[in-house]
Design brief:
This protein is of the alpha/beta class. The protein has one domain (about 1-195): Alpha-Beta Complex (Maf protein). The protein is about 30% helix and about 25% strand. The protein contains six helices and seven strands. It has helices at about 10-20, 30-35, 45-60, 95-105, 175-180, 180-195; strands spanning about 1-5, 25-30, 65-75, 115-125, 130-145, 160, 165. The protein has a seven-stranded mixed sheet. α1 (about 10-20) links the parallel β1 (about 1-5) and β2 (about 25-30). The chain binds inosinic acid. Inosinic acid binds near residues 69, 71 and 152.
Length: about 200
């Protein structure tokens, strides 16, 4: 089955492709098929945004579409940056500025909890068959006061995985895909896709 992946985030794409490899799908990106398609995400929840992105990509290409919406929630910041994670420090999205803003926000709260979690909602939309699947995952950690590591993307250098004593940016792609919020969401999505009746 040919499927469009509705993301322009290369970091995400690098993670999503191996997470779905076992399904034997023919994955194409929205930039390959419909580079001008708009992927608006102005919803209030990860679910709304992940469904909106998959629906827009499905409509723009006529193919079934897969999308995710994800972000970081920090307890001491009342769940911020949350659904605004990509543009926490303003538009256009900029990982370095987002991380600087997060460090400053937590530095202003000495003694506050540094607990947080990444969340991901993964969606599949097949308009021809009238199917919409929504699955979610999360990964708990702690926000450091200074970045560590050069891998991954986004807030990975500030996100400590306590059980490993390493940040997400200090993990290999395979290690991150063994424990991440995205791995949990796409693992559940892959299982739901396997349960769908086979057609054409
Ligand atoms: P969106 O899902 O395109 O709205 O963007 C999600 C944003 O959340 C990214 O731009 C990152 O800032 C952050 N984010 C989501 N997942 C991860 C991750 O696995 N590592 C680091 N940051 C992430």
């Amino acid at each position: 089955m040919k499927i469009v992946v509705a993301t322009r985030n290369r970091g995400k794409l690098r993670e999503i492709v191996p997470l779905l490899a076992d399904l034997g799908l023919d994955l194409c990106t929205i930039d390959e098929l419909a580079p001008d398609a708009e992927l608006r995400e102005d919803g209030l929840t990860f679910e709304e945004n992940a469904l909106a992105k998959a629906r827009q990509a499905a409509r723009a290409t006529g193919l079934p579409a897969i999308a995710d919406d994800s972000g970081l929630e920090v307890d001491a910041l009342a769940g911020a940056p949350g659904v605004l994670s990509a543009r926490y420090a303003g538009s256009p999205a900029d990982d370095a500025r987002n991380n600087a803003k997060l460090m400053a926000a937590l530095a202003a709260k000495p003694g506050a909890s540094r607990a947080g979690r990444f969340r991901c909602v993964a969606t599949f939309v097949d308009e021809a068959r009238g199917i919409e699947l929504v699955e979610s995952g999360s990964c708990a950690g702690e926000i450091l006061s200074a970045p560590r590591g050069a891998g991954g993307f986004g807030y990975d250098p500030l996100f400590l995985v306590p059980a490993l004593g390493r940040t997400m940016a200090e993990l290999s792609l395979a290690e991150k895909n063994g424990l991440s919020h995205r791995a949990a969401a796409f693992g559940a999505l892959a299982a739901a896709l396997r349960r769908l009746p086979v057609s054409g």
